[in-house]
Structure formats: structure tokens, C-alpha cells
Amino acid sequence: MTGAQTDTSTHRPRVAGEREREIFRATLAVLDDVGYDRLTMDAVAAEAKASKATLYRRWQGKADLVVDALTTLKKAAPAPDTGTLRGDLVAAFCGNHGLTEQEAASFASVVTALGRDREFAAVFRERVLGPKIAVSRQIYERARARGEIRPDLDLDLVSPALAGIVLHRRFVLGIEPSPTTTEAVIDQIILPAVLANPSEA
After folding, report:
1. What is the C-alpha separation between 162 and 189, in angstroms, rounded?
2. Helix 17-38 vs helix 41-48: angle between axes, to the nearest 10 degrees?
3. For labelling alongside 93, which of 49, 58, 69, 181 has CA 20 to 30 A away?
4. What is the pLDDT of residues 79-132, one digit of tens each?
5. What is the distance between the alpha carbons of residues 96 and 100, in angstroms, rounded to a whole number?
6. Are 28 and 69 in contact (CB under 8 A)?
């Protein structure tokens, strides 16, 4: 009856705390083992020793679950503000340059899915890549406000460039990133391309 209806959502079991972390660990384990295409909610439920109904109470489907799990690997840190573009880029990318084995395996597992699953790609780009690119963009916006970079610079084009180069070297060329090589990319590629006075690079 209409008058007796209650909000049943408030009575659903919550997936939070350590149980949530267990499900995320199980999700990443299945992802690393079989890849995104072959990952199923059934497989994650079995790995986490949970019911599939429990997963669907919290996540709409595997895209939503996998992206939530991936966001736990490495949060986007606040944009550093050292006073110079070079200092900000070094602080943002050279001090935390490396990927753990878990991060590298998980990223490799989703690369193919980004080109094949539009739903997953959209969610991944919004919730995993989006915050990281926003931090990089803030660094360049501050540099523009200081007059360090060319005023005609396309920040949408430049903001993901450094991370893109580092990830290309890691996953395509097989070269592990290091603070030294990342700093060389900053000095030899990024700064000469963006500075208002390239001789300062």
C-alpha cells in the first residue's frame, strides 16, 4: 500500500570499510588474472567470498566496480606549488614516478578494454584519468598566470603530455621510469615546447 511504503534503500546491507577493501582486492586480482574483457561479477564474488547480489547492491556493473577498485591504487595528489613550472612538474612527477607491480599489472589489463568497451572507457577516463589530468592542468594554469608559458598554449593538449610520454616508455617500450629519465623528459621535451622563453629551459 502506498501509505505504508518505506525507503528500502536505507535497509540494504552496506559495503564499506574492510569488506569494501576485500572486494576491491578481489576485483584487482581477477582483473590481473584474466583481464577486463573476461572479468565477471560472478568471478569477483567468488574471489571475495561474497554473493553477486551484494556486489550489485553497491555497483551497477563491472565497469563501475573495476573503476572504483582502480581508484584505490593511487589517488591524485594535490598540485604542488613551488613557484615555477619546472619545480611543479618535478615535484608532481619525479617524486612519485614509479608504478607498483599491482598498478602496472592493473593498468596493462585495462589498456585493451579502453579501445573496446565504450562504457568502461568513459567511466575510467572520468574517474581515474580525470583527476590526474586536472592536477596537471592546474600546474600549467598557474604557470600561465605567472607568464612562464606561451599564452596560446592549448592546455587540454599539454596537460596529459608528460604522463603520456612516461607511460608510453613504460608499457610500449618496456623502459621502467625513473626520476632521472622523467626529469630529462621535462627538461628536453616539455619545457622547450611550452615556455614563453624557450632559452630558459
Report:
1. 9
2. 140
3. 69
4. 899 999 999 999 998 865 456 677 777 888 888 889 889 999 999 999 989 999
5. 11
6. yes
